[in-house]
């Protein structure tokens, strides 16, 4: 009787084990992006940075329509007032509501960061892909060009180019659009070099892989190999560089506006607000405190997002 009971117990345990194995094998394997999202969620600072950045983006898009104070209305009687219930971030020398101007300025500053990043990513990816794939003389020439741009003093060159081309661009495209094109173009053209080096390194490694040789044997052309087979596998460092490039572009635009060579005075940007508030920092510190705080939080959030993407996408930096 005991042997029969023991046999039944063993059979039941084997059935349970087979059921567990079947349940595990029945689960769908995780995709690359689901694994990346799973790793990204473990990075608490990256998640916090994502929420902060999304909050800033939504606030700058929707906030000006919901806030009852105008960014351009002048109230000299309320000039240089500190934070209050009516003006949560105080007012400037002309009585402008600082909170309303920060909301409007975020549209310009974030737009400059994103578009300048797209320009630099496009140029860097294109040059890095051509250099890494073709190699030899093309690689040597493009890398010497990259070294030349890296050796240029970025900020003095930015100031010189904007000073020389500011008036022609404003006359051709208008004041706001002309300055936007000029600032975005200059920042993008002077910040593609790190991306080009990253993409080149990835192409040098991937072009010798077996799946690339197989694609060549099947008759795939050069453009197909570059854009369909190699480039999708080289996007992880590009994505990380893109997030960090947004923060760098925002700081650069703020620096230009702070030095008085950015957007015109009637266009509030975070850097312009800092520039206008520096003269009154002793009597009205809120004029530089709040614009500096939003620049700091936005750039810090973007950097944490870049760290989280690096850990999630790059297999060499798993959590």
TrEMBL record:
Pfam families: BPD_transp_1 (PF00528), OppC_N (PF12911). Residues 106-306 form the ABC transmembrane type-1 domain. The keyword Translocase does not apply. It is found in: Cell membrane. It is a multi-pass membrane protein. Belongs to the binding-protein-dependent transport system permease family. This is Binding-protein-dependent transport systems inner membrane component. It comes from Sphaerobacter thermophilus (strain ATCC 49802 / DSM 20745 / KCCM 41009 / NCIMB 13125 / S 6022).
